[in-house]
Structures are given as structure tokens and as C-alpha cells.
Amino acid sequence: MTSKRGHITHVIFDVDGLLLDTEKIYFEVYSSIVAKYGKSYDWSIKPKIMGMKEESAAQMIIDLLDLPLQPSQLLREAANELDKIFPFCNLKPGAESLVRHLHREGIPIAVSTGSSAYHFNLKTQTKHKEMFKLFHHIVCCSSDSDIKHGKPAPDAYTVAANRFDGGSPNPQNVLVFEDAPNGVLSGLAANMKTVFIPDPRLDKSFYPSGSYQLLTSLEQFVPEEWGLPAYKQ
């Protein structure tokens, strides 16, 4: 089925802030860490690192705030707290209903997250294991050797697309869901259709340039606008 927006055959989801309500966890933990050094981690900094590979994000925080740390030190200190909280994170509104709908309708779906496999498993294997089993495959950019450059480079989504059965689909038939500016730029750089669902705290000055659909929640998404099967009434 073709619609006014195109004909989508495959869908790739980001995770943090898009499927899982984890961005506020990252924000609280990193805010607490940098406060020890008399610094402030706020929404003028956070959008710049969202979606990036973990080590690259840590290096940017250090550079922007002039912290006396190495990326490994910052990540280790953050992990001390994140590892305790991640197993109890919640889904974002509309996430499970959309994922289950697409899977039920036979649409190939995948995940491409900036997280490492270790952190991805912490976030998903306690409360959300069954839902994440529905994905054809998972790409964890921070620990995947095929990801040479993290978001906003296209690798995160080109690699994910290449791993679908039958080879890589036409990029114009792939729909990316993202909450982070870097992730949107990654999807667009991969020449894929992109839906942007930003955190309401994100200043519009951080919205990326380019052509994408802007929504406030996954609950707003209308599958048939993209040639995908409609929700059953």
C-alpha cells in the first residue's frame, strides 16, 4: 500500500527516550556527577550527546564542561548508578502497542541504539524482555564492531538495515523513529524516512534541518500515512 508519505516496508527504532523512558535517568545521574565538580549538566548540553556512542558522549560532556576526567572514568562513575536503575525503567507511551502492531502485521522491525549491548540488556531483560523479542535484530552501536561512526553518522541505520533478511531494503522504504537530534540526522544521512519525537524539554533551536515527520508521542503515529497497515479497531 502506497500513501502520500511513501511505501514503508521496514521499520527501525531507537530505544532511549523513544521506546524506553530512560533519558531522564541519564539526565539525573550525569547531573549528579558533574555537580561534584561545580558544573551543571542541563538541556543546553544534553541534546548534543543524545544518541551518540557512549564513549563519544562521555568525551563531549568532559570537553563541554572542562571536567578533570577521562571518558572511562566518567562512564564508570555513571555506571555505578545507572546499573541499579536501568532494570526498572518504563516504556514510553504508545511504544508497546506500535511494536506489537507492526510485528503482528508482518512488518520487519529492528532496533538501533547508541547503547552498549550490556546496558541495552540491563534496560530490557527484566521488565520488557518479551516485547524486545519481537524485533528481528538489535544493533547496539557502542559495542558493535560494524559501527565505525556513531550517530549522527549514517552507520547506525545502514548497518541495521543491512541485517534484515533478504538484504538491505531500499532506504526510501525504511522508516526510522528517533527522539534525538543526532539520531534524526543519522536516519536522514542514511537516506531513510524519519519520524522525530523530541523530548518536550528540547529547545526548538536543536531541531535538525531536513525533511522528517514531527510528533509529540508514538501514540500520534498513524501507520497508514506511511503505507503501513492501520491499527485494528
Q: Could you give the topology of this structure?
A:
Elements lengths: L9 E4 L9 H13 L10 H4 L4 H12 L5 H15 L9 H10 L4 E5 L3 H8 L4 H4 L4 E4 L14 H8 L11 E5 L2 H9 L3 E4 L16 E2 L19
Parallel strand pairs: 1-2, 1-4, 2-3, 4-5, 5-6
Helix pairs in contact: 1-4, 3-4
Protein name: (DL)-glycerol-3-phosphatase 1-like
Organism: Saccoglossus kowalevskii (Acorn worm)
Q: How many structural domains?
A: 2
Structural class, from helix and strand content? alpha/beta
Estimated share of beta-strand residues:
5-15%
The total count of helices amounts to 9
Helix content: 25-40%
Specify Rg, calculated over alpha carbons: 17 Å
CATH structural class of the largest domain: Alpha Beta
Q: Which oligomeric state applies?
A: single chain
Number of strands: 6
What is the fold named in CATH at topology level of the largest domain? Rossmann fold
- What gross morphology would you assign? globular
Contiguous runs where pLDDT drops below 50 for at least 5 residues: none
Strand order of the largest sheet: 3-2-1-4-5-6
InterPro entries: HAD-like_sf, HAD-SF_hydro_IA, HAD_sf, PGP-like_dom2
Protein name: (DL)-glycerol-3-phosphatase 1-like
